[in-house]
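sorry to bug you again but im stuck and you know this stuff better than me. what follows is a protein written twice so to speak, once as letters and once as structure tokens for the fold. mainly i need to know what kind of three dimensional shape the backbone takes. anything you notice is useful, everything is just below:
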Amino acid sequence: MDNTEKLEPIPTTFCPNLKTDSGQKIKAVIFDIYGTLLISSSGDIDQASLSGDNMRSAMEAGGFDLQSCQPGVCTFLLDQLQEQIAIQHNELRLQGHPFPDVDIFKVWEGMFAAAEEQKLLKRLGSESLVDTIFVFEILSNKVYPMPGMKEVLNALTLKGIPLGIVSNAQFYTPIIMNYFLTGEFTPRQDIELFDKDLSVFSFKELRAKPDTALFDPIKTTLENKYKIQASEAVFVGNDMLKDVYTATNSGLKTILFAGDERSLRLREKDARVKGMFPDFIINDLSQLTKIID
């Protein structure tokens, strides 16, 4: 990947809280990705910076013939991106998904179909939608590992702690994570060091946090595979609503990651998190090893 220039977290004023009064041992750790394991230049996967230049570069990478495209095609596609997402969200809400996430391939297929209908471009059939989407996303939202990410995950693995993920993510997220963990660029959909049975991604479920349904398969796997109760697992995330609220209501303990000002989401005006506190607060991933002894 060419878009991996180093990012540094922006410190917050939060002091860590690493102590608990329960005395109950934590036996599994489930992570959020964006803003927790990965620094995100936008702070969130849903707030990428959209630009016509990025769209053009992505289309070039995907093999589109830009010489045959009409002026304004990139602006049209960016508008369609938002429109197609809204269409899918509405359809999924009607199907009973209160917090929907999209099939990004269906979104982009709809974008290009609309552009063809307007005669702004013509596809030859050799273009790669995967390459186009992937390049657009890594250009629009630069990411980089949080300091100590790989070391902490390795340390927890050596302790025999099962590791899992519940993340608002898309197909490219596991690819990016594996690149930072292994240095290899592969299309794998499982992530190194994480149990695939403890990994839930919103794009596969068409549901996004704060939908607690995303935690149901996690709890089932913890109990059936590891004989671990939800209350013996902890969820680490940077968002009081999407992470702390959702995990708490799913029966897990919680750790608020307050290590990067870009991504810290306190949601102070949201009534759902008023009076709610995480079990722990950390501002550096290395502090996890002090909580999980």
Q: What stands out?
A: The CA atoms of residues 56 and 201 lie 28 Å apart. The radius of gyration is 20 Å.
